[in-house]
Amino acid sequence: MKFPTLLVGRILFSIPFVSIGLMHVISANKMSGMVPPWLPGGVVWVYVVGIADLCAAASILSGKKTVLAGQLLACLLVIIVATVHVPAMLGAADEVGRMMSMSALLKDLGLAGGALLVSHIYRQRS
């Protein structure tokens, strides 16, 4: 019996994006403080990112348009790293704040790498 590694991997990889996407949509007003102040729109961007996360997770889970979803998700995550996590890390008032921002930065970079790997795997399969 072959273990369905790719299916389990897709499910596990999608769980954070379903969770984070739902948090963005349900708690948008609470999360709007994370939007960089120079970016107009505020809470709109929280909804956009939440919906993008949910769409990417649905695509990866279903195996439909997975190459594009992986590439777009990686771009979104790198943009979040550059516009949210790096400024938060550099502007943190204390060591704990810097460490938390660095942790979020590294998590999102790792997820971006995973999204690119998913994209690459599905490009090879089609």
Report the radius of gyration as a whole number of Å: 16 Å
**Beta-strand level of the residues, as a percent range?**
under 5%
Number of helices: 5
Structural class category: mainly alpha
- The 3D shape can be described as globular
Note the main sheet: none
Q: On the 0-100 scale, what is the average pLDDT?
A: 93
Helix content: over 70%
Give the ordered list of helices and strands.
Answer: HHHHH
User: What's the count of strands?
Assistant: 0
Task: State the low-pLDDT regions, or none.
Answer: none
Distance from first to last alpha carbon: 24 Å
Number of domains: 1
Task: Outline the structure in words.
- The protein has 126 residues and is an all-alpha fold.
- It has one domain (5-125).
- The protein is 82% helix and 0% strand.
- It has five helices and no strands.
- The chain has helices at 5-26, 28-31, 43-62, 66-91, 95-125.
- The protein is globular and about 50 Å long.
Features:
single chain; 126 residues; 0% strand; mainly alpha; 5 helices
Structure in a nutshell:
The protein has 126 residues and is mainly α. The protein has one domain (5-125).
Topology of this protein?
Layout: H1 5-26, H2 28-31, H3 43-62, H4 66-91, H5 95-125
Helix pairs in contact: 1-3, 3-4, 4-5
